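Q: I'm teaching a short session on how sequence maps to structure, and I want students to see two examples side by side rather than one. Could you give me a first protein with its sequence written out and its structure tokens following it? Keep the formatting plain so it prints cleanly on a handout.
A: Of course. Example one:
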Amino acid sequence: MWKSNKVAGLLNKREKIDKEIKDIQNSCKHPKKTIKSIRERLDSHMTVIRWVCDECLLPIGYPNKKDENNYLKQ
């Protein structure tokens, strides 16, 4: 029984953290961005190349082919 209470508490904390992150990302103006390779989903090992805000870490777009090739050459 204590495990289910602990899991419920952790899920509640995660929900609060996810909401705080979402609020920060929604209010961010995304002043600077960098191309990064990020996981497509939390439950996946696949990565994608995306523009990511340097301030709030929100993926904000896909680079064009030229930018993607330059990133891959690094």
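Q: Perfect. Now a second example for contrast.
A: Example two:
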Amino acid sequence: MEAIEVTAEFDRKGRVTPLSFKWRDHLYTVTSTGRQWEAEDERHVLVMAAGDKVFHLCFVRDKGYWYLIPPVGYGTNLMA
């Protein structure tokens, strides 16, 4: 997991809508939000960014931090 900056909206039911995120000096605009789930004190969200790239974002509530979980098989080169 790698810490990232995320701009997001939270509703009263706990659902989150990420709008954009910054990862490795690149700003990604979220074009759609997919599945969301809870795991312990974390909120996981699958998002799609421009170029049909899917990302797994994780918000850790007690720390107030967002993380990016790289997809299996992508290594560290998601921007290719």
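Q: What should students look for in example two?
A: Point them to this: The CA atoms of residues 59 and 66 lie 4 Å apart. Also worth mentioning: The chain has a mean pLDDT of 87.
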